Amino acid sequence: RGAVSVFDGESSPGASTGHHPVNLDRELISRLTVFAGRHNGTLFMCLLTGLKALLLARTGRTDIAVATAMANRTQPDTDRIIGPFENTVIVRTQITPELSFAQALVRVRRSVLDAHARQELPFNILADHLEREGIDPASLLQVYFTLQNPLRQPLDLPDFATGSIGNIAREGQPVLPIDQTWLSLMLKERPTGITGSCNYKHELLDGRRIGAWMEDLVALLGAAVAQPNTPLDGLLARNAA
User: Fold this and answer.
1) Is residue 9 part of a domain?
2) Rg of the chain in Å (alpha carbons)
3) What pTM value is reported for the model?
4) pLDDT by residue (tens digit) across 44-100?
5) C-alpha to C-alpha distance for 172 and 17, rounded to whole angstroms
6) Has residue 183 been placed in a domain?
7) What CATH code is carried by the domain that includes residue 48?
8) Which of 37, 42, 66, 72 is the most exposed place for a label (fewest CB within 10 A)?
9) CB within 8 Å of 107: residues ≥ 6 apart
10) Inside any domain, residue 7
11) Which domain, by its residues, includes 124?
12) Tally of domains within the chain
């Protein structure tokens, strides 16, 4: 199937970027984690389902592609190698307004597992193939999502000094080094919940709209775990009211 853009239009390479903070409290994260577990999913899958449901409501698109990064360390030979193996993959899901959040999560889970299975395919090879088919790879990179998990224990390496690269919510620096990304939601787990940043292109989106979208996302996630069998259009209409 051909690539599907989430947004209409084109982004110029020199577009400036804005940042909006995102916060989800520990209670909501705990409820989302339990909910995801009941459906054989993860917190990442649950948050991604919320983002895709929000994009469904705000853009009207039902075929939604979101880029993310995966570790790409599935081979035992890479276990003892220091260096980046991370690869960009596309999580593409068909969701419609009549689906419940639980049903949408099942679909997102399947598409995330499919992306995991192909995480070793370099994105530039996929991009070259798409271009030969007359498809613009940038249409798959308009939205980017990542969730950083905290270290379960301090990193202690003999003869090495280690340190954090910083707080993504404060720095607001895009992770994806591809300028076609219009909207990137970068989150990080903390003891108090989740913090992060929503980065966006000024020429395409404005801060007021993004602020409202992030409020809607938090409200949607809270309503979804409270009423998981309510159709998405009901949850989203309630948030829009």
Assistant:
1) no
2) 18
3) 0.83
4) 999 999 999 999 999 989 999 999 887 666 666 766 766 666 678 889 999 999 999
5) 10
6) yes
7) 3.30.559.30
8) 37
9) 93, 94, 95, 99
10) no
11) 17-75+82-150+166-240
12) 1
